[in-house]
Amino acid sequence: MTLNDLIFLRPELILLVTAIVLFILDIAGRRPDPVTATRQPKPWLPYVALIGLAAAALGLLPGLGQTAQVATMLAADPFAIFFKALAIIGVALVILTAIPYMRTRTPYRGEFYALLLIATVAICLAVSATNFVMLYLAMEFLSITSYILAGFFREDRKSGEAAIKYFLYGATASAVMLYGMSLLYGATGTTDFGGVAQALGKLGGSDLVWLGGPAIILMLVGFGFKASLVPFHQWAPDTYEGAPTPVTAFLSTASKATGFAILIRVFLVALGGLQPLWAALLAAVAILTMTLGNLTAIRQTNIKRMLAFSSIAQAGYILIGVAAATTGGSAAASPFGGVNGVLIYLLAYLVTNVGAFAAVIAIENRSGKVAISDYAGLARRAPWLAVTLFIFLLSLAGIPPTAGFVGKLFVLARPCARR
Amino acid sequence: MTNSLLTIITFVPLLGAILTLLPWGKWLGLDKAREERLIKNGAIAISLLPLGLAIALAAGFNPAAAGFQFEIKVPWITALNVHYHLGVDGLSVPLIFLTTFLTTLGLWYSARTIKTRVREFFFLFLLLETGMTGVFVSLDLVLFYVFWELGLVPMYLLIGVWGQPKDKPQYSAIKFFLYTMAGSVLMLLAIIGVYLSVGTFDIVEAAKLKPFADNFLMASLAFWAFFIAFAIKVPSWPFHTWLPDAHTAAPTAGSVILAGVMLKLGAYGILRINLPIFPDTFKAYGLVVVILGVISIVYGALVSLAQWDLKRLIAYSSVSHMGYVLLGAGAAGLAVGSKELVDSGAMALNGAALTMFNHGISTGALFFLVGVIYERAHLRDLKMFGGLSSKLPYYYGLFAVTAFTSLGLPGLAGFWGEFFVFRGAFDIVSIWAAVGVLGIVLTAAYILWKIVQYVFLGQYDPHKIEHWTDPATGAEGHEPTDVARFEKITLWPLVFFMVLIGVFPAVLLNFFNGTFVALLTGLVGK
Question: How many distinct structural domains can be found in chain B?
C-alpha cells in the first residue's frame, strides 16, 4: 500500500474523519441542563454529517472512469463508484428525513448520524472488495453498525426486538457465508476473486460443480440476508417495523443495494465460470422472492411492514437482472446488456423507496400512526403529502411515467434478450 | 405548426390539469364556491382548445394521401432507440375527435353534478384526456405504453373516489386497475420482444420489418400478449368481468369516458399493432378472434337481457357491441394476403371502426341519460321505473333516439357499423357472421323490452319513487322534472352526430376506408 492508493480512498477517509469529528462534537462542551438534568444535543450536528457526505461525493469525482487496484484487496472501478455514489445519496436522503424524526424521540442524536456515516464507510469498502477476507470484514462492519442503528431507541421494546432479530439472523447468515468462502479457499488456495476464478477455471466438470455448488449456496445465504431474498428474508418485516423509520429506509435501500453489489461482483467475477449453476439458482430465488414478497405485502396492515414486504418483492425483480446478467460478448454492448438493468433499477428504487419512507416518516411525525387504515382521508388532510406518497407508490408498482417503470423495463428486457 | 399540432392536442389538457391545482382562490381572493366555479369553467374552456384543434386536424387531414400525417419524430431515449414519434392516419383522426368531444361534454356535465372534491375531479379528468389522446397519436411502442398506463391512474381514482358508495367503488376501481395492469405486463413483455426481434420500438418500422417473421412460436406469443392486453380493455369475453363493476360504480362522466373512449383504446390497439405488425399471425388466429367476437356479441346481449340495473345493462351491452369490432377485425385478419378478399376485409375493418366511433357516441349518450335519471331518482332499478314517458316526454325523446341508435336502426349511426361488419364478415366467415347476426335481434330485445318498456311505457305509479330531485335547482319534490337545460346541452350534440352519421356515414368512411384499403393492399404484396 502506497500513499498513492490513499487517493482512491478519499470518500472513505472523509466519511471516517467526519464520523469521528461528529462523535467528538457531540460530547464536547456539553453540560447537563441544571434543571432537567438532561443534555441538550447540538441541532446542527446532522448538517455536519451532510457536509461530510457532500465532500465524500466530491471525493468520488476524480476517480470517475478509472480502473485501479487499491492495496490489493479493493477495486476502484466504475461499478464501485456507482454503488458508493448510490450509498452516499441514499444516506444523505435518510439523514434529511431523520432530522425531524429524531428530534422528538431521543436526546442521543449525534452518534446516530456518526453511525450512519460509519455504515456508509462499510458500504464503500464492501462494494469495492475484491478479496473474500476484505469482503467479509466489510460486511461484518456494515452488519454490526446496522444492528446498533436498528436498536437505536433503547427504551423502545420494538426497536430492541428489531435489533436482536436482525443480529441473530445476521450472525447466523454471516457464519454460513464464511463457511462457503472457506470452501472456496480450500479448493483454490486463494481468497482473491481473480485468483479464485483462475483456479476454478483449471478445474473441470464435476469437480467444479461439487466444489462450487455448495460454496455458491452457502454464500448466497449471506448475500441474500443483506438483500432480503426469500428464504433469507424473515428478519426483514420485524426489523423494518421496529427499527427507527429512517433506519428502515436505510436498510431497505443503501444496505440492500450493497447486498446486490457484493452478489454481482462475487458471482460474476469470482464464480463467472459457474454461471449456468448460479443463474438457475438465482432465477428460482428471484421467482420465490417476488411472489412471496408481493403476496404477503397484500395482507399487511402496518405501512412499514407493507413496505418491508414490498422491498422484498423488489429484491426479487432486481435479482432477475442479476440472474440474466451477461459478461462480455455482443449482447453486453446492447443497452439491456451487462448488469445495466440492475443498476438502473437500484437507482430508481433507492429514490422511490427513500421517498416513500420519507412520506411515512412525515406522517408518523405528525400523527404517530403507522397503520394503513390511519391513512384514510390523507388526501383531505395533507394533499401534497398524499400526492407525493401516491407517486412513490406508483413508482414502486412500476407505472409509467415513473422511474420504477424504467427500472422494470430494463430488468425485464434482459432475460427476454437471452431467450 | 403542423408538426406540433398533435403535441398541442395531447398536452394542452395536461397543462390545464396542472392549472387546476394552483391556489386560484388565494391569489384572486375568491371564496371556495367561486373558486370551484372558476376551476369548472376553466377546465371546460381549456378542453375546448383540443376539441377545436381536433376538428382542425380532421379538416387538415388528407384522406387520399398514404401513410401517417402530422408526423413528428424526435429522439427521446437514444440509448434504447426510443423516439417521441407521433402521427395520425384515417383511423386515429376520428377517434381523437371522439376523445376531445366526449371529454368536453363530460366536463360540462360534471361541472353541474360533481359536488365533492371539485379540484381533484377536474384535474384527473384533464389528465385522463392526455393519456387517451396520447395513445391515439403514439407511433412508438414505449410512448404508446406510457400513455396507455397514464390513463389508467386517473380512471382508477375517478371510479374509486367519486363512485356511488353503495356500488362498492373501491372494489370496482381496484378490479379495473388490476385487470388492465395484468394485460399491460403482457404488453410490456411483447413490446420488449418486438424490440429484441427487429431492434426498434417504432410501430411503423416494426410493421415493415415484421418481428419474428421466421419464428411462429415467438410471433404467436407476442401476438397473444398484445391481443390479451387489448382484449381486456375492449373488453372481450372472457376478460370482461371488470367492466360491469367499473361502470356501475363510476360517476356518470367517468362511465361515459370509460365506455366512449377507453374501450376504444383496446380495439384501436388491435387495429394499430396486432394487425399491421403481426399480419400472418393474425391470419393464423383470425378465426379465434372472430369466435371471441361472436361470443362477446351473443353473450353480452344475453346477459344484458337479464339485468335489472339500468347501468349494468348498458355496461353489458358494451361487451356485445364491442364484439362487432372484434368480429370485423378477426374477419379482416383472415383476409390478410388474399387479393380477392381485400375488399371484404376493408369493409369489415370499416365496420369495426364505425362501430367504435358510433358506440362511443351512443353509449356515451346512454350513460349520460342514465346519469340524468339517477340524479333525479337516486336509483337505477328497472322495476322501480315505468310510465315515465308521460312525465318526462323530452327525456323519453332523447332516450329513444339514442336507444334506437344503439340497436342499429337504419338511418341512425349504429346501423352502419353493423352493416359494414356483416357485409365484410359474411364474405369471409359466413357461418360465424350468421351466428353474430343473432346479436342484433337480442339487442333489439333488451333495448325495447328492458329499457323502453320498463322505464317509459305503462302506467306511471307515483308511489314507486316518492322523492325526486331536480338536479338543476337541487329542489326535492314528489314529481320528476324533465331534462334541464345543461343536460340538453350535453345530449343534443350527441344526438346530432347520431343522425348525421346515420344519414351520411361518408363523413367517417372518408377517413377509414382509404387507410384500411391501403393497409390490406399493402399486406397482399408480402
Answer: 1
